[in-house]
Amino acid sequence: MATGPAPHPTDRPPPRHRVRSFFAALLIVLACVLTPLSALAFWARSQISDTDRYLATMAPLARDPRIKTAVTDRVTAEIVKQLPLDSLLDGLAPADRPQLGALLGGIGQALTDGLSGLVHTQVARLVDSDAFVALWTEVNRNAHAALEKMVTGQGGGAVEVRNDTVVLDLAPVIARVKSALVDQGVPLASRIPEIHTSYPLVQSDAIPKVRTALRVLDLAGFWVPVLAGACALGGVLLAARRRQAVVTTALGMAGGALLLGIGLSVFRAVYLDRLPADVDQAVAQAVYDSLVRYLRSAVRVVVTLGLLVALGAWVIGPGRWARAVRGGWRAGLGAVRRVAGRSGLRLGPVGRFVHHWKAPLGWLAVALAALAFVLWSYPTVLVTLCLALGLVAVLAVLELLDEPGRPGEGTRAPA
């Protein structure tokens, strides 16, 4: 009996699968978009809420030659301007004051230059010493207490926002130089009033917008990374092909972080190009590079992690090269195990236990490595690579300990 042609299966997935795939793709795209925002939010929150992190960010500037030169010149000019040269006439008889005043008028510039050189020497000596590093730390520790006020737009403290400039108060440095001048036999220095010299850290007409952005990022510093991770996990779980979804998500998030890194370099060039003419570009460059160095480190960590996760998901796939890699892995470790066996090593119940539970033990090792990364306060590229190498070492040990039992002693759990 003749029958009609067999129906051809449709190429379209069932409607339920299409809906799942749509939401999976949507969540994965959201995770990739939120990745650079997560890095920014994490960096902003760490700078505002963690004093030690902020001090570590600013610490290199204390030994930067560009910063030391700028601080030396600024403090010297401010102290010389405040030196009360007119007080040299105090205590003289009224009849002698005109004559000495005329004398000072003739040598006033030379006297000012001499005092300026002396002050500059003392300031430079202080700035080149470890005492300046301690003073810089003290100034910035006080500044961090006012950083939250700066972000919320309130003035006061060691850090303030004045129009389009973020300034740092160098009063402790000036006080130390004033004391050194008195010790060097310059009694006029004791009459210098308390000076709160403002040292510009960042200057840009975009400061108000940046301050608002920092405020938002600080508030979202915890939740944006959590939301990005939740979107990535949800997208993978909803995907029909989860392994491919893991590869796509990992590479997409690494790409998002890479775009942030490129954006930091572009913004650096734009920021330096738009500085006012009276601002030292070398100093502004040093401050910018120090402020964003931990953000750049976070970018490198996310890119490294994304590439490692994508590589791991690719290796367990069905591709020809992936199978070849797994085959080489098993063959190499199997050869080591056979050599150990010929040397008399017998694993006994340990080998049978690992053989039966190798897959769950492997996933447990993956989970512990991921947990260690999440709980690490500030993971670096080195930490990320060490965790990955540690995970590979654990998986290698499991492969070496995998010893099937005698027939009838149990079957191996599916990998």
Explain how this protein is built.
By secondary structure, the chain is mainly α. Among the domains are: 75-206, no CATH class; 318-401, no CATH class. 71% of the residues lie in helices and 4% in strands. The protein has 14 helices and 3 strands. The chain has helices spanning 15-49, 51-58, 65-82, 97-127, 130-152, 171-183, 207-219, 223-238, 242-273, 281-291, 293-315, 320-342, 349-375, 381-401; strands spanning 159-162, 165-169, 198-203. A 3-stranded antiparallel β-sheet has the order 1-2-3. A hairpin with a 2-residue loop joins strand 1 and strand 2 (165-169). It is elongated. The model is unreliable at 88-97 and 407-415 (pLDDT under 50).
Question: Any descriptors?
Answer:
single chain; 415 residues; mainly alpha; 3-stranded antiparallel beta sheet; 14 helices; 4% strand; elongated; disordered C terminus
